[in-house]
Amino acid sequence: MILIKGGNVHDGKGNIFENTDILIDGKVIKKVSPSIEVSEDTEIYEAKGKTIFPGFIDSLNVWGCQGPGWEDDDLSEHSDPVTPEMNVVYSFDQDSMMFQRVFEYGVTSAGITPSTSNVLGGQAAVFKTYGKHPYEMLVKEKVAMVSSITAETKKVYGSRNTCPMTRMGAISLLKGAIIKAMEYKKDDKKEHDPKSLALQKIIDKETPLFINCNTKSEMDAIELALKDLPVNVVFTGAFGVNGDTGNIMKDKFSIILGDLSNAMSSVNRYVDFEGVKKLMEKGIDVAISCCGDRPASGKESLLWNAILCHKYGIKAEDVLKMVTSIPAKILGVEDKIGSIEVGKDADIVIWTDNPIKTYSAKIEATFIQGENILYSRRDNTCWS
User: Which Gene3D superfamilies match (predicted)?
Assistant: First the structure.
């Protein structure tokens, strides 16, 4: 067992518990309380005066699926704009994820997606950011279906003179696939259709539909197109969000903001943070991610995005929720990760101060499933 002793615990749900202990038993949190009594053989980590966060969750990224060479590029299946049957688990490379070492900036889990340039790109999964094997790192697969109607989608297929060359073409393919899946569900004599089969959990609202939209007009078009269809929409990227977003859908949606830290981006310049705060006040779930123009951003990017949100007026504890409990909820893994609570994975990060409020904060320890990765002997050995 490990006892993290006397820290200021921010649980990821808006609560702060000062001078509080956390007892870790194996891979999970066993107890959170002041002055926990333990046996003599318990390892003690003295954290008095330190800031303790749940491990950050990057809601949307492609770490582990894309590299510099052809042999490393397993992200986008561009043989067809509609590929819902693709499963990102089979593209994930633990070495590529480990190379990023994002846990050095407190990121302990990530929502990994297939292509965000297909109309329907496939099924996303949640992985830990540290491990020796994809299935050791896997938290949950098939957590969302990934879709896109952005300019990137038009660029890929328009250059081939095939649909979709326009936004209306992309939405036509998206609606067509969903309606076909609904008809497939009703057909007692149906032939095997892997595309329609892959969409069944989407139309049953068991898993969300992540739709990559960069502009307000793209988001408005999706609202209009899907308002009467049985899907739970999560807008990703969502740089065109404002306080009126979701009026047509009657606020039955969530948002994963894309990368705000890329100063060279043409799409993230006009984010309406007052609108974001307005939506959050209405109870809309808003998370932060590093998805954007760059295929996979650096290990510090998620924290930079969190700092920017705080800089533009979102309260620090609300920002913390945007990188912990809210992404866990959107990704359907809140029973395992996203907050410091008894029974959840011991994904815990210890800082010298609050990194959302001050640049002087430094990371001291990153625990993933109860193992202090920054000082792990296993981390410094060959793969085993």
Answer: Metal-dependent hydrolases, Urease, subunit C, domain 1
Cα(347)–Cα(36) distance, integer angstroms: 19
Distance in angstroms (rounded) separating the CA atoms of residues 319 and 305: 10
Comparing CA positions, the residue from 87, 92, 101 lying closest to residue 72 is 92
54/15 Cα distance (integer angstroms)? 12
Same domain, 46 and 69: no
Q: Is 4 exposed, middle or buried (0-12, 13-18, 19+ CB in 10 A)?
A: buried
Rounded CA-CA distance 321/273 in Å is: 16
pLDDT of 58-93, one tens digit each?
999 877 666 555 455 666 778 889 999 999 998 887
Question: Which range marks the domain in which residue 79 is found?
Answer: 56-330
- pTM passes above 0.85: yes
Residue 228 lies in a domain: yes
> Does residue 208 contact residue 144 with C-beta atoms inside 8 Å?
yes
Structural domains of the chain, count? 2
CATH code at 248? 3.20.20.140
**DSSP for 144-202, written as a single string:** EEEEE-SHHHHHHHHTTT-S-SSHHHHHHHHHHHHHHHHHHHH-TTPPP-HHHHHTHHH
